Amino acid sequence: MTSARPWGRTRMGAAVALLGLAMLGEVNAQTLCSMPVQPLCSTDISAVTTKADRHRCLEDIDRFRSNLAEYRACLDGVLAKAQALEEASDRFRRCLREESGDCVMKPDR
């Protein structure tokens, strides 16, 4: 029975640690933009020889183009955040150099 207690504390500690990491993740989360994979039918690897192949390939290309649009939107968002952080860090640095005393680095976006 005594061996069950430390296991309970371990679980509680792990839960608290995970909660802390999740909270930090929200503050400093990195966005991962995943570039879509080009359909094989549009490369030399896979031949498009039948009507069915052509139909499948068209569907794959349409899906690829849609995923590319999502990828570009993700990259635009990442670039906007990076620019906002760059501007915020410039303001923060300027504040520190001026010794204002109440310097906070906070992005506008």
Descriptive overview:
The chain has 2 helices and no strands. The chain is mainly alpha-helical and 109 residues long.
Outline of the structure:
The chain is 65% helix and 0% strand. By secondary structure, the protein is mainly alpha-helical.
SSE layout:
Layout: H1 4-27, H2 51-97
Key descriptive features of the protein:
109 residues, mainly alpha, 2 helices
Overall mean pLDDT: 79
Tell me the Rg in angstroms: 25 Å
Biggest sheet descriptor: none
Content of β-strand? under 5%
Q: Report the principal-axis shape.
A: rod-shaped
The number of helices is 2
Residue stretches low in confidence (pLDDT < 50, at least 5 long) are 1-7, 12-27
Helix content: 55-70%
Q: Report the end-to-end length measured between terminal Cα atoms.
A: 53 Å
Give the number of DSSP strands: 0
